[in-house]
Amino acid sequence: MDQYGSDVLMQSDAMDNASDFNEKEDNVAIITPDTNDADSMVEDNDPAAAEPSLPLATDHEAMKERFMPMHPDHETEAETIFTWDITNWRSLPKRTHGPTFHCAGHPWRILFFPAGNAASESVSFYLEQGFENDKPPDNWYACAQFMLVLHNPNDPSIYLHHEAQHRFTADEGDWGFTRFADKNRIFAQKFDGSERPLVEGDSAKVTAYVRVLKDPTGVLWHNFINYDSKTETGMVGLRNQGATCYLNSLLQSLFLTGAFRKAVYQIPTATEKDREVSQSAYALQRLFYRLQADQVAVSTQELTHSFGWESRQIFEQQDVQELSRILMDKLEARMRGTEAQDALPKMFIGKMKTYLRCINVEYESSRTEDFWDLQLNVSGCKSLDDSFKNYIEVETLEGDNKYAAEGYGLQDAKKGVIFESFPNVLHLQLKRFEYDFQRDAMMKVNDRYEFPDVFDATPYLDDDADKSEPYIYHLHGVLVHSGDLNAGHYYAFLKPEKNGQFLRFDDDRVTRATKREAIDDNFGGDYQVNGQLQKGQNPYTRQWSTKRSNNAYMLVYVRESRLDQIMPPESELQPPEHLPAKIAEEKAAVEKRRKDREEAHLYMQVLVATGKQFQAYQGVDLIPWADAGADHETEPAAPKSYRLLRSTTVADFTSMLTEEHEVEQGALRPWIMVNRQNGTVRPDHPLTWPDMTLEEAANKFSTRTGGFRIFMEEAQRDADGKPLWPSEEAGSTPGSPMVNGSATSVQQQQQKPIMIFLKYFDADKQQLRGIGHIYMSPLDKAQDIAPHILRIMGWDEGVALELYEEIKQTYIERMKPKNTLVASEIQDGDIVVFQRHLSEPEQAAVRQIHPTASLTAVEFYDFLVNRMFVTFTPKVWPTSNLEVREEGGEKFTVALSKKDGYDALAHKVADHLTTNVSTGPVDPSHLRFTTVNIQSGKPRTVVKRLQGSNMASILLGNSGYSGYSYSQPQAPDQMFYEVLEMSLTDLEQRKNVRVVWLSEGITKEEPCDLLVLKQSQCKDVLAALQKQAGLPDDILDNVRFYEAHQNKVYKLLAPNQSVIALNEFMTLYAEHVPEEEAAVDKESSRLACCFHFEKEPSKSHGAPFFFMLKAGETFKETRERLSKRTGIKGKNLEKVRFAVVKGGQNYSRPVWVEDEDILFEKMQPEDHLGLEHANRNRSNWIKHESLNIR
């Protein structure tokens, strides 16, 4: 709470409970003043003090002026002064009220504790609302600045006073001073050196000075407890995710630009396909609708997720202009071909003309271009008009800086920018952040910068511009930054209606604001109170400064003649019909999930698999229980998950599934699934107790760790189509003890049919799939299974089969045909795998088609155990070496074995490409693979074809050294691939050489990657460069190569320089030798190495180059030739300083060159000429990563 007069310490309201009497129903705020700061009636006797004498307590106007001055930023509604005569002090009740008085139509009274309130050594005074029965009206409040003065009834020069201010409400109806005065002090015979006490004759007077202030925003001194933005302003805010206040400000500005919101709503998002194409547009539609419809602040998480942002973008403040432009580009692209096409350009695009106009001849060169927003200088400008004048300022080109006009030669000319039109919505970005070259850092400009409520842009238009419609603009929004570059906060002042009041949008809170708060308070500049310069504290850096840290950084103006079009009424801004329905559906789903959580204790999860899931499964074990609940279209083998009441009986459960599968009653039988010791999950026994509940069954039979899993068996049919179950004598209840060694029990077990599941391994398709299940007698032999297999598969008799038992997920064993099933230890739920026996010619035929194929079930199970799914993505796309059948097919997933070597990898990928992707065959020897960086997703290392390497070593590697483990740098399930023009064997004989071709002097760099034989020379590289860059034959004899390191020339290369000897850490440049160097006279000229740097030679940048020095030539003449060589002209050349750098060393001290110097004499052959100027590509190395919206 702001304080006036003496500093006060706010204490907890809970101290009321420490009082000797019950104050539970009175919300009394307890405030303790520092008595040393309170003024008494005693004047300072120090003659050196120049303080004016203290006024008398009865001189009310003087007291107000001295101790309770008017607040400079607030307007007074009413003032009242009231004095209460206190008599019989010692006999008053512990809690006493003074008479009621009124101020601004509100009743007030003084609350007095003669014996103190929670402070027995002090007396307590408070100002309290005076409504009867202590019940003020609902939503009542008053903002009051007040002072309480306790003074002697006979001598007004003896007094104590304390001041405070407070927002009085129904909940906080009392505010004042718990330790107003020490009892011993006010009852002393001589109060503070005077001749009489303050409380005299058991009497005193207390005067209340109450000033009620106007509260145009409704939030003056508000504590914002239970504050409702929607109720108070009709608007809701946006929640801050971490550092997204800048995003929130921009989004609120766009939302309140009604025409923009209307255009966003017109983007088609009704279908799933539309939403997939326009994820960010759909998320923005949802956000805008929720800002309209929700009652509380809205989250932007869904929107930033659609942008593809990660935590880095969320917790780092980004550039608002860059974000605005990217967002506009994305939305404009989504609006093409829709009802909203061209809506954004019509709203935000203006036109400016850049011109060069000759002064003495009739010649003008101009270029007209669009702009979406304008960046205006703040530094050096006092107002918006100053910035526009600075923007269109004309530069005269004369003297050495003349303009070469086509057909007229060098001419004096005027160069400038002029506006041809302004958009209907004018976004002005104020350059509050500028790079300071002296500090080598970005700094914030807090200078005062004024902008008007109504702005006339006409003076800045071209004389020929269409001015039939006035270019008068009204201020619609002020986006504010408070703080500095490293710590700050963004918020916005915006008008929801064209002629409405400003609202302040500060993340999740929206409040009313005055015009002064929105405009004048955000000009920046110095802190001033009553015309006096003051210091203010930055709330984010805690540093003190005379400059305001809160100021406007973006202004939004709307054209006056288009206000109705840009700011239509809310009734015209209705969202597409599907949007409210979709969000209501999602809210209902959320509510359902909440209800489900509350009722979770009544339900249980039951996982159910059937024979259809087993037949669709192509893996080890019976059913992929881990995939339970997955989509059956993508995972047809996944068991289905049911949420059922725990009290459901087995009979009801079976009946429910019978209806779901549309079979007759009695055709389904549930089996309990159990975990075996070998890690498999198999059926154990049928669930044949119809009245047992599912909860009882789960507790009795199920494994707790795996959940309650059921295999639902469907019966065979007899001749009449009725369900037929194998004959089975009812045994004892599962789980009950069985007599060991009982002949009856053994006989029953040998007569009980065994349910056996069958899997077929298809060597041709390299596929393992479930076929179904059969019942066999335990006394049957393994070979007796063969007739059942032949019948199910429809094969002829005599087909040779191989039978295996799948003992566990990683092991299968061949069955002995003559052994009985009981001897082979076969039991309910066991799996028998079969395959056709392959002769040697059949094996060769399979190998011919699939060189890496498994020929036996044992080999295929080994593949399954070591199987890994790897996703392959083209390293460069599109590429001329691969033409796909359909778009998107170039990215695919292949099942590989960890034991596969490089050749097996190449064959499997080539086989997939040829079969499923490419329009033509792909040669495995032409494939090259690269691992993927697990952090960035970019290419990491090219995979080499080494003896003994396999997929495990390539993708998984050895994740440790000397016993220490670390995370893998490459992704374990992704690879890049390339289809090469030549085989890998041929490629290994070649070397990739990157050459930077300087096509236009040194101003344009074109990197070229050239593949040449390792035995090649520079002249062979030149031939490859000519082919790729399209160089004419007549310049080949005048092309030279040179190496550079750290942007400095290292050495010139001869044409016969070997490629294999090139240093990979050097940059290789190639350029056309300038004509003036064609004939170098060693006596009168020589070549010098040159480079660019900023501030010091170690900060080099740009392309280094050679330059010819001439004997006897002064540097004034040399500079002209350097200008032609580098392309740096005019004012840019004037900003360049030239220096001789001894040996070109990073830390050599530059020797600056003067106009009269002769470089031929000043420079030694090993010296370099340095050009000191700012690095225009600085953003490439000081920016982390460009902002992007997916």
Automatic annotation (TrEMBL):
Which GO terms of the cellular component aspect does the record hold?
cytosol; nucleus
The organism of origin for this protein: Salinomyces thailandicus
- The USP domain, residue ranges: 236-560
Q: Which reaction does it catalyse?
A: Thiol-dependent hydrolysis of ester, thioester, amide, peptide and isopeptide bonds formed by the C-terminal Gly of ubiquitin (a 76-residue protein attached to proteins as an intracellular targeting signal)
What GO molecular function annotations does the UniProt record carry, in alphabetical order? cysteine-type deubiquitinase activity
Enzyme Commission identifier(s)? 3.4.19.12
Q: Where is the composition biased (Polar residues)?
A: 733-745
Q: Which family is this sequence assigned to?
A: Belongs to the peptidase C19 family.
Full protein name = ubiquitinyl hydrolase 1
Keyword Hydrolase among UniProt keywords? yes
Q: Where is the signal peptide?
A: none
Q: Which Gene3D superfamilies match?
A: Apoptosis, Tumor Necrosis Factor Receptor Associated Protein 2, Chain A, Cysteine proteinases, Phosphatidylinositol 3-kinase Catalytic Subunit, Chain A, domain 1
- Superkingdom field: Eukaryota
Kindly state which keywords UniProt assigns to this record, in alphabetical order: Hydrolase, Protease, Thiol protease, Ubl conjugation pathway
Enumerate the residue ranges of region (Disordered): 1-53, 718-745
**Biological processes annotated in GO:** protein deubiquitination; proteolysis; regulation of protein stability
Q: Which InterPro entries match?
A: MATH/TRAF_dom (IPR002083), Papain-like_cys_pep_sf (IPR038765), Peptidase_C19 (IPR050164), Peptidase_C19_UCH (IPR001394), TRAF-like (IPR008974), USP (IPR028889), USP7_ICP0-binding_dom (IPR024729), USP_C (IPR029346)
Q: Show the ranges annotated as biased composition (Acidic residues).
A: 36-46
